[in-house]
């Protein structure tokens, strides 16, 4: 389990560019970018969206996609600690990658982590 540290009360938007640790794509961040638009992988860096307080730093594998209320929600699982999280897909995300993950049964992150899913991208 990641160490839970005091988080800011509000989302902190940070525009951060990164190289995907899974597929090596150079990703230009928007301030809401959470994952690679090509492979949908990310890194476990947040306790709450944008806080960068997670100590795990493991890779977050995309394990499923839901389509709810007109938008895709990507469920990711940390390969190091098992932390589950959902994020909204961005318009730049690969539709092939999203569709390839649809229909997979995954546990609800809210049920496993005891909190609501994030609203930020």
From TrEMBL:
* InterPro entries found in the cross-reference section: RNHCP
| Organism this protein belongs to | Nonomuraea zeae
Report any Pfam family annotated for this entry.
RNHCP
* Limits of the RNHCP domain: 16-98
Region entry Disordered, spans = 101-121
Q: What is the lineage of its organism?
A: Bacteria, Bacillati, Actinomycetota, Actinomycetes, Streptosporangiales
Question: What is the protein named?
Answer: RNHCP domain-containing protein
């Amino acid at each position: 389990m990641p160490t839970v540290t005091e988080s800011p009360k509000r989302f902190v938007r940070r525009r951060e560019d990164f190289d995907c640790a899974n597929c090596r794509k150079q990703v230009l961040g928007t301030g809401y970018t959470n994952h690679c638009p090509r492979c949908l992988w990310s890194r476990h860096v947040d306790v709450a969206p944008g806080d960068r307080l997670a100590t795990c730093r493991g890779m977050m594998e995309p394990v499923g996609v839901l389509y709810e209320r007109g938008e895709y929600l990507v469920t990711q699982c940390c390969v190091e600690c098992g932390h589950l999280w959902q994020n909204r897909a961005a318009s730049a995300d690969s539709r092939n990658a999203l569709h390839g993950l649809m229909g997979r049964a995954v546990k609800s992150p809210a049920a496993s982590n005891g909190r609501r899913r994030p609203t930020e991208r």
